[in-house]
Write a structure and sequence with these properties.
The structure holds two protein chains of two kinds.
Chain A lengths: L2 H23 L20 E2 L2 H4 L15 E8 L2 E7 L26 E5 L14 E4 L11 E6 L4 E6 L2 E7 L5 E8 L7 E7 L6 E7 L2 E7 L6 E5 L15 E13 L5 E11 L4 E8 L6 E2 L11 E10 L2 E14 L2 E11 L15
Antiparallel strand pairs in A: 1-20, 2-3, 3-4, 4-5, 6-7, 7-8, 8-9, 10-11, 11-12, 12-13, 14-15, 15-16, 16-17, 18-19, 19-20
Chain B lengths: L2 H15 L9 H5 L3 H5 L13 H4 L11 E15 L2 E2 L5 E14 L2 E12 L15 E2 H4 L6 E11 L2 E10 L2 E12 L3 H4 L1 E9 L3 E13 L2 E8 L2 E16 L5 E16 L2 E9 L5 E10 L10 E8 L26 E14 L3 E12 L12 E2 L3 E12 L8 E19 L11 E18 L1
Parallel strand pairs in B: 5-19, 8-12
Antiparallel strand pairs in B: 1-2, 1-3, 1-22, 3-4, 4-6, 6-7, 7-10, 8-9, 10-11, 11-14, 12-13, 13-16, 14-15, 15-17, 17-18, 18-20, 20-21, 21-22
The chains are: A mainly beta, B mainly beta.
């Protein structure tokens, strides 16, 4: 064995022993389980945090100052659409005959639909920057428009007015018009329109709140709709709480989502009024948009949440669903509803809490 | 000691050590043992005779010409993803040690072998699976264990070798008892709690055995059996305390008993063949393993939870009458056949040196079904491609009375993306796709004494 060979062998052996020694000295670096996965949209959802919204006042998840009576808010790629009435300066006393959770609209100006842009710095919105985009002008609208749903793909704004569903289209300069009544069902009391592409056909599906619950209508062109059916959104039998049975479904909001495996479903979120007086946001999913499978657990509970409007986006490579809804809170002698945001998956953070400096 | 007495005592010792037990699935199962064997895709069961025989086929130990000591290091890196997001899999690094000590009585050869893989990070990791928390079952926790095997082998005639041994593993049995009183109003000042913890890491053993037969001068056949094992975790937690600060003390009892299977190793049968050209210029090995994954028991724990709070009705506490813990679910795994192929070529030979190039391939089809229900154990098929090089040095006298063998390998494993589509549209986790890559490298140094 030559000297060069001996050196080569020696260096290899030393290298090997060094590797082993380094390995033996390595401390355990405990890795957490892989991150949770939530691709079905069932939640659970968490209220947006103060650091994410910039709003410190309750209710939890508030995203906008609320001095108006806000009914429904929908986030889109071009901002937040919401319906609201401005309190009258000489408002009459509240009608004592109304239920506690019913807004006395005689104390507010006529409901209009507003639009406001998202703030750059957080998930919040500035109420003072909101501009009215639609007010009632037609006799069938009975003096108020509400429950906006803007369809980004078609540029159409659907809304509720006088128990019917109306629609306006975005024109030049961003003005909406003309007012068209796209669905009217006598005595049905239609509210809360939400429009999605038909996942198995070429048309459009319109989900609405009726006096009986939640229903679906269909259209080939997104203008003339035909009532199809009332939806069955019953909980699975094993998930029914006999102490808090569900009495009413209302305020639907829908989106079409495609899972990482390529499966396309309609996800429907709606407000559930339970027999014990509580409200939760329920969720159901469907492959054809007509027959739904109900999630056994609420998407979230919150402060008497209503009118959920989902918004789906990709954030840091993860599909995130945000639900904008209204929640009850009290200010002076007015009962207001504030716009709130809830987020799923739970571990997605739009802003991190600042650590308190060490003392 | 006569040869006959030695044989009888050896067999008796083996029988005692092979008491029925369950146990297997360790770093060597996942990443191989020894650089030469790993770089050949693990297709060495027919004729292996170095220290890696402790894992691949203990019969090969009796083929060693002299004492062999080996030491090595392995580093495995996983780049696995779920829905395009990197999974949180820790690097696995570990040292391995192998010993082969042969003896000869007349024409009969005996050998004792010991194999050890010791991870850098920890001796063992135990994790209980949550059904709604997806994890890579094969690579998350399973390889994070010590592997220790001891074997004996006999070769009564040159063309026949037998070997058998045992491998050790350890389940855990943990007990936590809390006693005392908790003041709800001033808990930090007035609560008095004492605790007692008991941990018991017992050992279990599982068998392996093998045979190698030289059918022809250039053709060997081997058969290897590895037993199954099941590592259970028992966790008992009990809290018996008085809640004070709300009038009379309220007795509270909380009991939690969980039994979970932390790891299951399936029994495995490997049929091996190898073919050598003259002068060992080319060796081709092929192994086919049957792995009994269908016997896999549930990884979901059995939980029994008891909560008793003897509170007066005036407090209005709503104590649930029954808390339902988790229950095992059928894993529905299926058996798999794993083919392995290895090619070894002599690239250079001189009186002082010998250089060999090695190539290996293995296909491990996943025993886990598509996760369509509430369970979320992620796994995918695995194609492993390996290259390696061996440098043998001879004529080392007077420094070493024997041969020095240095082996290195690099392995790339491809796990094709697999789509998991849930039966329920409102599954708590939802659909996901999972796949990725793994990169493993290792280096071994072996001293083979004459």
């Amino acid at each position: 064995m030559t000297r060069a060979q001996q050196l080569a062998v020696l260096s290899l052996v030393v290298t090997q022993l060094a590797l082993v020694s380094i390995g033996c000295a390595t401390r355990g670096n405990e890795a957490d389980f892989p991150a949770p996965i939530a691709t079905s949209g069932v939640g659970p959802f968490r209220a947006a945090r103060v650091v994410e919204t910039g709003f410190t006042e309750p209710p939890a998840g508030r995203v906008m100052e609320s001095t108006w009576a806000v009914e429904r808010a929908q986030l889109t790629d071009i901002g937040l659409f919401f319906a609201a009435g401005i309190p009258l300066e000489d408002a009459p006393d509240r009608d004592p005959a109304l239920a506690a959770d019913v807004t006395d609209w005689s104390r507010y100006g006529p409901r209009q639909i507003y639009q406001t842009a998202a703030r750059d710095q957080d998930l919040g919105f500035d109420l003072e920057a909101a501009t009215p985009v639609l007010e009632a002008t037609e006799p069938w609208e009975e003096g108020a428009v509400s429950d906006p749903w803007f369809d980004v793909d078609s540029g159409r704004l659907y809304y509720a007015a006088g128990g019917s569903i109306g629609m306006v289209e975005a024109g030049e300069g961003g003005a909406f018009g003309p007012h068209q009544q796209v669905l009217a069902v006598p005595e049905a009391g239609l509210r809360s329109p939400t429009v999605v592409r038909d996942p198995v056909g070429d048309g459009v599906l319109l989900y609405v709140q009726t006096r009986a619950g939640v229903a679906v209508a269909r259209s080939e062109d997104g203008v003339a709709f035909t009532f199809d059916r009332n939806l069955s959104l019953d909980l699975p039998t094993e998930a029914v709480d006999p102490d808090a049975t569900e009495e009413r479904w209302s305020g639907p909001g829908a989106l079409v989502a495609t899972s990482p495996t390529g499966r396309t479903t309609v996800r429907l979120y709606f407000s559930v009024l339970r027999s014990d007086g509580t409200r939760v946001i329920g969720m159901a999913a469907s492959e054809d948009g007509l027959r739904f499978e109900r999630s056994p657990t609420p998407a979230f509970i919150g402060d008497l949440p209503r009118s959920p409007c989902p918004f789906l986006e990709s954030f840091n490579g993860v599909d995130v669903t945000r639900i904008y809804s209204t929640a009850e809170f009290a200010r002076s002698d007015f009962a207001f509803r504030a716009v709130t945001a809830h987020i799923s998956p739970l571990d997605v953070m739009y802003a991190e809490e600042e650590e308190e400096p060490a003392e | 000691m006569s040869l006959r007495r030695f044989t009888i005592l050896g067999c008796l010792g083996l029988l005692v050590s092979l008491q029925p037990a369950t146990a297997h699935a360790t770093p060597p199962d996942t990443y191989g043992f020894g650089s030469r064997a790993t770089s050949l895709g693990g297709a060495v069961g027919a004729d292996v005779s170095d220290s890696s025989a402790n894992f691949y086929n203990p019969a090969g130990l009796s083929g060693a010409e002299g004492v062999r000591l080996s030491i090595g290091y392995l580093s495995a890196h996983s780049f696995l993803q779920v829905n395009g997001t990197r999974s949180n899999l820790e690097r696995l690094g570990g040292s391995n040690v192998g010993i082969v000590a042969p003896a000869k009585f007349g024409n009969v050869r005996f050998a004792f072998g010991l194999g050890l893989h010791l991870n850098d990070q920890r001796l063992a990791r135990t994790r209980s699976a949550a059904t709604n928390r997806p994890r890579w079952e094969m690579f998350d926790t399973r390889p994070h264990r010590v592997w220790l095997a001891t074997n004996i082998a006999i070769s009564p005639v040159p063309w026949l070798r037998f070997g058998a041994g045992i491998t050790f593993q350890s389940p855990s049995d943990l007990t936590l008892d809390l006693r005392g009183s908790v003041d709800l109003l001033r808990p930090e000042e007035r609560s008095r709690i004492e605790h007692q913890f008991k941990g018991d890491l017992t050992s279990i053993r599982y068998p392996q055995a093998g045979v190698q037969v030289r059918i022809h001068e250039r053709f060997w056949v081997g058969l290897t059996y590895r037993g199954s094992f099941e590592l259970k975790n028992l966790l008992s937690a009990g809290a018996r305390a008085d809640i004070v600060g709300l009038g009379d003390a309220i007795p509270l009892t909380f009991l939690l008993d969980t039994i979970s299977v932390n790891m299951f190793g399936p029994q495995t049968v490997v049929l091996s063949t190898s073919f050598n050209l003259p002068d060992d210029r080319l060796r081709i090995g092929f192994d086919l393993a049957w792995v009994d994954w269908s016997a896999h028991t549930s990884l979901i724990p059995t939980e029994d939870i008891t909560l008793i709070v003897d509170a007066p009705p005036s407090l209005g506490l709503d104590v649930p009458s029954r808390i339902v813990g988790r229950r095992p679910l059928d894993m529905n795994l299926h058996d798999v056949f794993v083919p392995r192929l290895g090619v070894e070529m002599l690239a250079h030979r001189s009186p002082a040196h010998e250089v060999e190039l090695r190539f290996g391939y293995a296909y491990e089809n996943s025993p886990f079904p598509t996760q369509t229900g509430v369970m979320n154990f992620i796994d995918s098929d695995r194609h492993s491609f390996t290259v390696g090089v061996g440098w043998g040095l001879r004529n080392l006298r007077p420094t070493i009375a024997g041969r020095l063998q240095i082996d290195a390998h690099l392995s790339y494993a491809y796990l094709p993306e697999r789509a998991h589509i849930k039966d329920s549209l409102v599954d708590a986790v939802g659909d996901f796709v999972a796949g990725g890559h793994q990169l493993t490298m290792g280096l071994n140094v072996e001293l083979a004494f004459e």
